[in-house]
Amino acid sequence: MLCSINYDGDLNTSNNRINLRKFDLIPVVYYSLAETLTHYYILYCFYHADDLTHENDLGGCLVIVDKDKSLLLGMITIAHFDFYSYVSGNRLREGRENIDGILYAEKLETGCREHPLVTQELNKHGCYAWKGMPRWMFWNRCYSWNCNKCKPWWMFWERRDSMDCTGIKCIPSDKAIMPDPFKINNFNDTQYGYVLVDILSSDGFWNKRDHIVNPLTFKSRGIFNSSTIGSASAPLVRDDFDDNLATGTIFFVPVTIASKYFDGDFNNNYIKYMNE
What we know:
This protein is mostly beta strands. It has three helices and 17 strands.
């Protein structure tokens, strides 16, 4: 379930695993915005207090929007040591990295703009576009091992991201409450609101990034403090292992990563950076 890094009332991220059943997990999505003359770049980060193998996890996605047309163009998601790229319609072309799939979107209410759909895998929380998990991840064909609608196993590709499968659908809201773990049904029936938290705000984690000043939150630059050997890293130190871009490009200079992953007309004159 989504939550904040201080869901338990403190900024010590090395006790978030042991406190899981002591506090409510209120759904939170962290975000930051960069703006150029032509585009918005919106980074969303999804924090989980526990990963299957380590404490703390932080996936996310970079959404690219055309300012003049208010049009959703594409998205780059963060999944483990890889970034994956998706395009809405034919609004962007392939750049120096392969496009990994289609970016699906929905309108949550009549007349509203497109909201990109993402999915996170069970236990490990890698973030992909809806219907966009790599094909080799056949064991994640559904969010419930008991979902008969996703069987037989060789039909996983069509049904893996079906709204009929078991899981929690999180949607933007002005108010968020903890999902009831005993009443999780399919995505259509199990919907909960999340609240947005600015990464740069006092409730965010940008102003806590100095691990010398805040050792309880970060054990080293951008790496969350942890009771386990592994731990998630904040977007300022995230990197794809083979795209040959500098660490933190997705946060500090999103035009650079957009220009490599997609062939588009991306203006490089920033009006606002994500860290200001």
